[in-house]
Design a protein that fits this description.
Layout (H helix, E strand, L loop, with lengths): L24 H12 L7 H6 L1 E7 L2 E8 L2 H4 L7 E3 L4 H17 L1 H10 L2 E7 L12 E2 L7 E4 L6 E2 L3 E2 L5 H23 L14 E3 L8 H4 E3 H22 L6 H27 L6 H15 L4
Parallel strand pairs: 2-4, 4-6
Antiparallel strand pairs: 1-2, 3-4, 5-6, 7-8, 9-10
Helix pairs in contact: 4-5, 4-6, 5-6, 6-8, 8-9, 8-10, 9-10
Length: about 300
């Protein structure tokens, strides 16, 4: 499967992201984390302290992280949260969601297999409930192959769609969502998408109309953040359309995904146009990719 707006939809052989076989996944993934975090090395002791549980989805293996040493956790922009050891219910939800992707959206499941090795179930620390907002799902450029999800991922999908009932279809979308982010992260690091002079810190910002009640950081997006979101939103539209074609979907879920398609398309259209307005930050290759996104999104029919 190709991901519109990206050069590489699979990990290039012998590239920085081409980690060893599954038997060495933990060591390989953490080696990348070490390099991207400018650490000299990840100590063997820290590697051994990380606790994981394997979950099987037919013949495919994923790993739930149950413990990460505090000094490594503190390097991530998620210090207000803590890891939750997945109980049987959480594991069953994850397996059901991943199997749903495999059976109804195979092209998306291939992306998940390629870019997700670890899933970290998390929640906001009790002392931070009044200070921060619990994530739905997240992934971070410095930690390839790892995604973070909370129980909100059973109910909420972007831009602002919230279900009253828990749904494995929603969790499946959020897992796919973060897999695509990881693919975008890889493409930005391996390919010349942005001009050499571009930095997030100094670039112009894009005001996001559906975030007008958010804190300033979430209301005004950097150009690379908007690029991320545009690639992801278009992929999520594809997944949402497949849900409407599923004969087993409930009427409530059907209404939910229909509404999410409408709001998602509106957001994707806005973002794709905004990227073209900021084309000066993109290389020739990057501009080609944002044009590709704009054209694809504008061909979507409700």
């Amino acid at each position: 499967m190709s991901i519109t707006g990206l050069l590489d939809s699979t990990i290039p052989k012998n590239s920085f992201f081409d980690i060893p076989s599954h038997n060495e996944t933990r060591r390989g993934a953490l080696s990348l984390f070490s390099q991207l975090s400018s650490l000299d090395e990840i100590l063997e002791k820290q590697l051994e302290e990380i606790r994981i549980t394997e979950i099987k989805v037919k013949d495919n293996a994923f790993f739930c992280m149950e413990y990460i040493p505090q000094d490594l956790w503190d390097l991530l922009p998620i210090k207000s949260h803590e890891i939750v050891v997945p109980d049987n219910e959480v594991v069953e939800c994850l397996v059901k969601s991943l199997m749903h992707l495999q059976e109804t959206f195979e092209s998306g499941f291939i992306i998940v297999k390629e870019f997700v090795k670890y899933i970290v179930w998390t929640r906001l620390k009790a002392k931070n409930v009044m200070l921060d907002t619990q994530i739905t799902s997240s992934s971070f450029p410095k930690m390839p192959f790892v995604i973070f999800v909370s129980d909100k991922a059973n109910y909420h999908i972007p831009p602002n769609n919230i279900s009253k009932e828990k749904s494995f279809r929603i969790l499946a979308e959020n897992i796919y969502h973060e897999a695509v982010h990881q693919a975008v992260n890889m493409n930005i690091l391996l390919n010349d998408i942005f001009i050499e002079e571009f930095t997030s810190a100094t670039s112009e910002k894009i005001e996001i109309p559906w975030r007008n009640l958010s804190v300033k950081r979430n209301q005004f997006w950097e150009v690379d953040r908007a690029y991320h979101a545009t690639v992801v939103y278009y992929q999520l539209l594809k997944y949402r359309f497949t849900q409407l074609q599923d004969n087993n979907i409930s009427e409530q879920e059907r209404a939910f995904f229909h509404s999410a398609i409408q709001s998602g398309l509106e957001s994707a259209l806005f973002l794709s146009k905004a990227l073209l307005d900021k084309r000066k930050y993109f290389t020739e290759v990057g501009e080609c990719k944002i044009n590709e996104l704009f054209n694809a999104i504008n061909q979507v029919k409700l």
